[in-house]
Write a structure and sequence with these properties.
The chain is mainly beta. Helix content is 0%, strand content 52%.
Length: 117
């Protein structure tokens, strides 16, 4: 059974940093494009960043460019999101997603990030 397990969320002051991790189980991790999304209650889910299967291509949402860095370690089946210069508006539940053409899309359960002002 495929599982994506996020960790690393928590409470941090404005300007601080956090690193999120997403570890995949029972998944051919190397094959998948991986992404981080976030959701604030009452709002649509927002794409934060994505990374190609081998890590050569990354994309970021405009609101996080220059502050967040997505990376992956295929040997550890793990996706990362380094978040620096955090702002209160970054407060959300963060989810990882695995996508591959022709296969089901998988989501993690989410990890809460709260940035205090």
């Amino acid at each position: 059974q495929v599982q994506l397990v996020e960790s690393g969320g928590g409470l941090v002051e404005s300007g601080g940093s956090l690193r999120l991790s997403c570890t995949a189980y029972a998944l051919l991790f190397n094959d998948y494009i991986m992404s981080w999304y976030r959701r604030v209650p009452g709002e649509a889910r927002e794409l934060v960043a994505s990374i190609s299967s081998r890590g050569g291509t990354t994309n970021y949402g405009d609101s996080v460019k220059g502050r967040f860095t997505i990376s992956r370690d295929n040997a550890k089946n793990t996706l990362y999101l380094q978040m620096n210069s955090l702002k209160p508006e970054d407060t959300a539940v963060y989810f990882c997603k695995a996508k591959h053409i022709g296969r089901p899309v998988y989501w993690g359960q989410g990890t809460q990030v709260t940035v205090s002002s």
